[in-house]
């Protein structure tokens, strides 16, 4: 079946994996990647598929309502996978306005454009909003060691409670507050206008093409350069890590088979205390660089904690498993090995995004940001 799918934020980390999967898997679809190309958007992430005939790129800001109307009309859009957002908690603490603008008003502008273009004819239409587990707030740490075998360092459940689809929203950072607000708008458009919406809330992603301001690529890059590894607080916070390609697989499945008006949680059942995860990263990078074990341990630097730092995130994705049969395909050990190797093998990509080289390139192609 022919379809015209709008993917927003497709030049970013998760978006680029979703675009790649959809372009390769569905040659009969037209995949329209719409992205503003902020500091986080990088078309180099899509070099391998940019020439494919079922792919096209539109540079636009989701806050620009007229531009959104035009895209729906021009490409006759019948499905939306909405990933465009400001995504980094630390930036949201410094500049909450940009987060409210893009994440809340941008989502609203996209919803309104979809509603207007589809004009009540919702047959076969779908507006799928990608959100985060951070909207649920923070969980307690009730189990001091995650590894049931009692090892000091290991992933596992760090508490008895998990976020489910019924957990009440309780966001703490400006980032999570803006995402929570956008989720509410999406559901309101279903409840008020009947727009066929789906929302998913996913845990922390890791893998290739993640901007090196987030923990895993930042630390790999810093180890490579012998720079300090800034651990917030005591490194006791827990995150549930999912390999990005597994998230993209879930998005594809839910976009096609998820039930309208439903929420699905997506997670890895893979909790790690930051400091344990950091030690795994150090060991892996040192080994792959041929350094003696423990060489980069000295780079660990404890710094002032992040304001409002959520203690623990842990997702229960049983609903998705039971309804649609999705499970993470990759063991964490394999995922982290692949990820470290990718950043070490793609140092040019890392150097370009950290030096701003790619920004100059895209300024030349598309004008200034
Ligand atoms: P990212 O920061 O890597 O990419 C965001 C993309 O959105 C970039 O390409 C950027 O240029 C684009 N963008 C930003 N503002 C825009 C605007 N106004 N108009 C058009 N495009 C704009 O983010 P990511 O980590 O890939 O996250 C993608 C989505 O998934 C976000 O909605 C995020 O909230 C959600 N999410 C992320 C994670 C995670 O661990 N990274 C986990 C759960 C959910
Ligand atoms: P991050 O990758 O920013 O994702 P999020 O805040 O959305 O979970 O951070 C992951 C965890 O790592 C989080 O608990 C904050 C911590 N962290 C550090 O300790 N140091 C750092 O330099 C960064 C970026 C994060």
Please give a handful of descriptors for the protein shown:
alpha/beta, Rossmann fold, seven-stranded parallel β-sheet, three-stranded mixed β-sheet, globular, binds nicotinamide-adenine-dinucleotide
Summarize the topology.
Blueprint: E1 3-8, H1 13-25, E2 29-35, E3 55-59, H2 65-75, E4 79-82, H3 89-94, H4 96-118, E5 126-132, H5 174-193, E6 197-202, E7 204-206, H6 215-224, E8 229-232, E9 238-243, H7 244-257, E10 263-266, E11 271-273, H8 274-289, E12 300-303, H9 318-324, H10 332-345, H11 347-355, H12 357-366
Helix pairs in contact: 1-7, 2-4, 4-5, 6-8, 8-10
The structure holds nicotinamide-adenine-dinucleotide and thymidine-5'-diphosphate.
The site of thymidine-5'-diphosphate has 12 residues, from α6 and β8.
Give an account of the 3D structure:
By secondary structure, the chain is of the alpha/beta class. It has one domain: NAD(P)-binding Rossmann-like Domain (Rossmann fold, 3-Layer(aba) Sandwich), CATH 3.40.50.720. Helices cover 41% and strands 16% of the residues. It has twelve helices and twelve strands. The chain has helices spanning 13-25, 65-75, 89-94, 96-118, 174-193, 215-224, 244-257, 274-289, 318-324, 332-345, 347-355, 357-366; strands at residues 3-8, 29-35, 55-59, 79-82, 126-132, 197-202, 204-206, 229-232, 238-243, 263-266, 271-273, 300-303. The strands form three sheets. It has a seven-stranded parallel beta sheet with strand order 3-2-1-4-5-6-10, with helices on both faces. The longest helix has 23 residues, at 96-118. The chain is globular, with a radius of gyration of 20 Å. The protein starts with a strand and ends with a helix. The structure holds nicotinamide-adenine-dinucleotide (NAD) and thymidine-5'-diphosphate. The site of thymidine-5'-diphosphate has 12 residues, from helix 6 and strand 8.
